[in-house]
Amino acid sequence: MTERFDAVVIGSGAGGGTAAKVLSPLCKDGRRVAVLEWGPKLREEEFTGRELEMAGRLYFDSGGFLTKDKSMTLAFAKAYGGSTVVYTGTSLVIPKETVTRWAVPGLEWEDLRRRSEKYAGENNVHLLGPEAINDNNRLFFDACRTLGWRAAQFPLNLKGCKGSGMCNMGCPNAAKQGTHRVQLPEAERNGVLVVTNCKVERIRPRGRGAELGVVVSSSGIGHPSLWPPGRRTIEADTVILSAGAVQSPALLLRSGFGAGLPALGRYFTAHPALILAAQHENPITNYHGHPKSYYCDHFAETDGFLLETCMYFPFTTAKSLSGFGAAHEAFVSRMDLLQMILVLALDEAERDNRVTIGPNGEPVVDYRLSPKTMRAFVSAMRASARLFFAAGARRVHAPASARFIIDKSAEMDLDTLINEGYMQTGRVAVSSAHLMGGCRMGESAADSVTDARGRVHGLPWLYVADASLFPRCSEVNPYLTVMALADRAAEAARERIASRERAAA
Ligand SMILES: Cc1cc2nc3c(=O)[nH]c(=O)nc-3n(C[C@H](O)[C@H](O)[C@H](O)COP(=O)(O)OP(=O)(O)OC[C@H]3O[C@@H](n4cnc5c(N)ncnc54)[C@H](O)[C@@H]3O)c2cc1C
Ligand code: SF4
After folding, report:
1. Residue 364 belongs to some domain of the structure
2. Could you report the per-residue pLDDT of 189-198, keeping only the tens digit for each?
3. Same domain, 388 and 405
4. Cα–Cα distance for residue pair 369/304, rounded to 1 Å
5. pLDDT of 77-102, one tens digit each?
6. Strand partners, 240
7. Would you say the CB of residue 167 lies under 6 angstroms from ligand 2?
8. Which of 58, 134, 171 to mutate to test the pocket of ligand 2 (most atoms within 8 A of CB)?
9. 432 C-alpha to ligand 1 centroid (Å)
10. Considering only Cβ atoms within 10 Å of each terminal Cβ, which end of the chain, N or C, has fewer?
11. Which atom of ligand 2 is nearest to the CA of 291?
């Protein structure tokens, strides 16, 4: 079967959902626009909040996608709304200094700020009131103040949050304002067709546009796809690729575009992360309440890391903390005593950190944790231990130490107990949920894949509109920047469609 569209968006996450909305006015003029999304659209009752069930329903590899050397797990979602279904909703505008460091000709911070703030308004971004801040968050902020470290509150994109703390399993209360709640429904109301359970396998140039090979499947959960299971061919005048930082480069590589685009897949960054925990003597409120209200960027410039509050679920916590046996069990079986911090390392964009493809065209992420990142982790672990003790904890988990757990009585020896000798991959659980790069913006095909508006060099019908556009890491939580960049790319695509029509008239 072959279907024809004026524009096709591949993927429906932060980038694809935004692009769909920007293109949707075209439908009112009789043009056909489709979003093809690999994942399902879950029914409301399928957001159960049960950890393992939801991980299997929403994440690629149930959230355990491993890099090639198995040193890091990557979390990214496969669903109507993409990773916005599972993100926590912290909503920051990228700093001006970061965009200056990006140095992409034609990309101005002021433009990104304006677009980010437009989407912050659409998604009801605001600060939670003091009544909604639980102990886990309050203790973090108070300890930062005691230590004299710079910390601030996260703006969040919520409406009717009930503080159930399950944001990363898909909000069971429909409170988080991801693209699945805001931009995609609006695009559909305007006439965009959103086809779920539809994987795009290949893209081929065809005439002045492209031909896509897709497979529709029946996943057994969620609303049925608009199309019956099976293979089909889609023709599109304009294609917007928004499959995310792992899948967008992989799809282009398996479609054979690597030869003309030597930077394709390269300069992948990830904000490599550690989940750290500490035990208090008495229960604190932690898994009730929104999990992430504060961050500390005191060490960003000097040591290359951020600290954020977080609260993870039993399985994720257990697998993220190093150690085994009775000591590990004693730690993880008392969730009610735990305070948690997420460390994000601000990694450099390195040419050899890249997405490649395996024998069946599947993505393989070849990423090495650099010595700089390892040093940042050690320094972040020392800082977190200080913060936990200042907050009143009795013992802290420090994976780069001999026995993984340090008692309050050894507080004065943190610099010796936590050291680089113990900072080994495999010994310390590293994960990432901020996947960036692989189709970076830039000036020419020699060292980038697209221009500053997401147009792929040499392929006028193809645009990229997702986190793969980042030329370096964002240094803050990235989703608003993804939406701002997708807004620019989709606008450029819309202009192309309009100008082609004018030329044809
Ligand atoms: C657990 C978690 C928490 C996070 N928390 C925050 C936060 O609090 N704040 C923040 O700023 N950022 C956060 N992020 C990051 C943020 O969610 C991402 O940066 C953002 O969603 C990336 O947008 P994207 O469009 O590039 O990809 P995604 O949103 O991941 O969307 C890509 C979509 O493309 C689909 N797709 C892939 N391949 C194909 C194909 N071949 N055919 C069809 N469809 C395909 C996928 O199924 C997916 O739905 C978090 C991420 C995770 C995983
Ligand atoms: S804390 Fe709020 S946003 Fe997160 S899952 Fe619960 S209700 Fe949803």
Report:
1. no
2. 999 999 999 9
3. yes
4. 14
5. 999 999 999 999 999 999 999 999 99
6. 9, 463
7. yes
8. 171
9. 12
10. C
11. 1
Using CA atoms of 442, 443, 444, 446 in order, give the dihedral in degrees to the nearest 10: -60
Whose structure tokens read 């305070």?
Answer: 339
The answer to whether the CB of 175 is under 6 A from ligand 2 is: yes
Task: State the CATH number of the domain containing residue 470.
Answer: 3.50.50.60
Per the structure block, which two tokens stand in for 191? 């006439």
CA 359 / ligand 2 centre spacing (Å): 40
Average pLDDT for 354-371: 98
In a domain, 353, yes or no: no
How many Cα atoms sit within 13 Å of 384 on the Cβ side? 34
User: How many domains does the chain divide into?
Assistant: 2
137 and 77 together in one domain: no
**Ligand 1 mean position, distance from CA 441 (Å):** 18
Instruction: Kindly state whether residues 179 and 51 are assigned to the same domain.
Output: yes
Residue type, 442: G
Closest CA to 203 of 473, 463, 489, 439: 463
In a domain, 306, yes or no: yes
- Predicted pLDDT at 250: 98
CA 158–ligand 1 middle distance (angstroms) = 18
**Predicted local confidence at residue 426, as pLDDT:** 87
The neighbour count for residue 413, using CB atoms within 10 Å, is 11
* Dist CA 236 CA 32 (whole Å): 9
Kindly state if the Cβ of 161 falls inside 6 Å of ligand 2: yes
| The amino acid at 88 | T
Can you give the residue range of the structural domain that contains 486?
Answer: 2-124+168-265+436-504
Q: Going by CA atoms, what residue is nearest to atom 29 of ligand 1?
A: 13
273-288 burial, b at 16+ Cβ within 10 Å, e below that, comes to: bbbbbbbbeeebbbbe
Token pair of 108 as six digits: 């101005």
